[in-house]
Amino acid sequence: MYLYSCIIGTFVFNEHLKLKEKILFNDKEIIQNYLLLEQNKELKTEKKLKERYRIEVIDITHKKFLNVLDFLKDYSENFYKANIIITKYKISTSVNEDNLIIQTIDNISEIDKVTNILVKRLREWYSLYFPELDRKIENNKDYAQLIIKKDKDSLTKDLKIKFSMGASLRKEDVSQIIELAKHANSLYLLREKNEKYLESIMQKYCKNLNFLAGTLVSAKLIAQAGSLKKLSLFPASTIQVLGAEKALFRHITTGARTPKYGIIMQHPFVQNARKEIKGKAARTLADKISIAAKLDYFKGDFKAPSIKKEMEQKFK
Amino acid sequence: MYLYSCIIGTFVFNEHLKLKEKILFNDKEIIQNYLLLEQNKELKTEKKLKERYRIEVIDITHKKFLNVLDFLKDYSENFYKANIIITKYKISTSVNEDNLIIQTIDNISEIDKVTNILVKRLREWYSLYFPELDRKIENNKDYAQLIIKKDKDSLTKDLKIKFSMGASLRKEDVSQIIELAKHANSLYLLREKNEKYLESIMQKYCKNLNFLAGTLVSAKLIAQAGSLKKLSLFPASTIQVLGAEKALFRHITTGARTPKYGIIMQHPFVQNARKEIKGKAARTLADKISIAAKLDYFKGDFKAPSIKKEMEQKFK
Fold first, then answer.
1. What pLDDT digit, counting tens, does each position of B58-99 carry?
2. What separation, in Å, do the N-terminal and C-terminal C-alpha atoms of chain B show?
3. pLDDT for B256
4. Nearest residue on chain B to A124, alpha-carbon basis
5. How far is CA B142 from CA B129, B180, B184, in A?
6. What is the DSSP-derived secondary structure letter of residue A164?
7. Chain-chain contact of A167 with B92 (C-beta, under 8 angstroms)
8. Average pLDDT over residues B133-155
9. Is A170 at the interface with chain B, CB within 8 A?
10. Which of B43, B46, B90, B216 is the most exposed place for a label (fewest CB within 10 A)?
11. Please, how many CA atoms are within 13 Å of residue B28, restricted to the half-sphere of its CB?
12. Distance between CA A25 and CA A46 in Å, rounded?
């Protein structure tokens, strides 16, 4: 007697390899049994059939059966169905922190784009009413928040403007503009929430990288690389120019200068470096980021603070 | 004795054109007096000085004085200040319905663009969790509203999906996505508010145009023309291709076909016309829009219903 299990069920054969009994899995059992099979663990159905037929040892591997038996062709439909269920399951479990990080950082970039569009319109629209404010408040977020908080009269006083060139609009005209400001502001708040959420993921998923490069830069690097794994396998020189692909290809095709830095340019360590040593700072940072990414991907210790300290001392 | 008023004040001269007395306006009086001067009405300061000096008639025009007197050069600073105040006043009163209409319709277009960006991201993000929904719900607004209202479980039931390929995310992961959906939805509602507001302006400002071409098409035409005045002065053939400038210039430079319609293509009258007569429908609609714009700009009667009826009967 032989016992054989695969993703569609458990089968019992006699010595001549003729089918004696079968238990087919229903949709819900498929994944559970698939996972047990993967781990070479005993299935419930196997236990049951073993007891019934007093089979003591299964001395034949699945693979041998696949070569020996052609009975499986009768179950092609079951296999088709089971395979789809398993594939769906595999897809669903393939979503990981990388995906969440990439979606969130992309959403943050998109919110930046969108708020810029909306506040550009807001400035133009509100300038019918109060043109003087546009130049006084350069920051978009501040602009949107200010006109929500204060009306024209108090703003005129605050900014010490004697006579505004703006039209005196009706209440309902102004309220349309304020509504737009509120929506822009609400998107700024969403961006903050997204950033906090992103940080919370990254502090668990890649705490060295997050500590060293900061949440936004780290997330952009992961998004550009495709995953933390890929980032951890990149050489430091690639990390240095990640996000500067355009300039890199220009260098390759036209012989223009090589780019000194990509995404990591946004890191204060590079940003605050003197112009002459910006390239050097970028190279050093990329080195350390490469180490941090490797530490995180291969589940190393939390060494980012000492790495950061070392890096900063080098540039004092 | 002569009395002379200008934007900076009122002056009394003797027979030899020597200054006897002056009353200079303060900042607040300037615009008020400027408006009275424009209408050739008597100023309070003139009345006062007339009584004091018993001047009966002012028989000399401002212009004559400007030629005769060079005393004004002593007041150049006053003139400079008064002119700035008047200019600001003029700018502030130059804002009219056209500006409000243009800002609002431009904002509506921008909201369309922005919601598309956000929902594109939303679809990608939520598809980590529930990829099956993306294809089932094509409309962006419906998609955003649906995932706010219903959770994955009830959507799975509604759509009769056995096993979703989506990952089972944590609550806090999903809530980030739902937040984005809420913001997109809120922008859709803002768009509706904007449209209602726009309609309320246009029903007063250009009710013939609004009735005939609809709020959105009318507003787009006014925005493209620059103002209702400009639109009313355009020939119907220009109105027909307004918004199709790219195709028009392509026609001029490369000899490609002339565009048949621009913005008015979005009007149901053109949209629902059979393909062979779409061009003809566009031409007719442009004719009628031209009439409606003229009626509105030159304060004619509300004739749009009969014009529309006539137009529709022609195409039956």
1. 555 555 565 556 777 788 889 999 998 888 888 878 788 999
2. 77
3. 84
4. B103
5. 18, 14, 11
6. -
7. yes
8. 94
9. no
10. B90
11. 0
12. 12
| pLDDT tens per residue, range A129-153 | 999 999 999 999 999 999 999 999 9
Provide the pLDDT for residue B230.
96
A117 to chain B, any CB pair closer than 8 A? The answer is: yes
Whether residue B124 lies within 8 A of chain A, CB to CB, comes out as yes
CB nearest A27 (choices: B162, B176, B183) = B162
Q: At a CB cut-off of 8 Å and minimum separation 6, what does A148 contact?
A: A178, A181, A182, A185
- Rounded to a whole number of angstroms, the distance from the CA of B19 to the nearest CA of chain A is 31
Residues in chain B: 316
For residue B74, report the phi and psi dihedrals to the nearest 5 degrees: -70, -15
Q: What is the DSSP string of B182-213?
A: HHHHHHHHHHHHHHHHHHHHHHHH-HHHHHHH
Strands A19-24, B2-6: pairing kind: unpaired
Contact state of A121 with B106 under an 8 Å Cβ cutoff? yes
Cα(A64)–Cα(A66) distance, integer angstroms: 5
The 3 state secondary structure assigned to A24-83 is: ECCHHHHHHHHHHHHCCCCCHHHHHHHHHHCCCCCCCCHHHHHHHCCHHHHHHHHHHHHH
Cβ distance B279 to B315 under 8 Å? Answer: no
Tell which residue, B143, B180, B173, has the closest CA to residue A99: B173
Residue with tokens 């062979």: B276
CB nearest A106 (choices: B110, B121, B165): B121
Does B106 lie at the interface with A, CB-CB under 8 angstroms? Answer: yes
* Residue B165 structure tokens: 């390929």
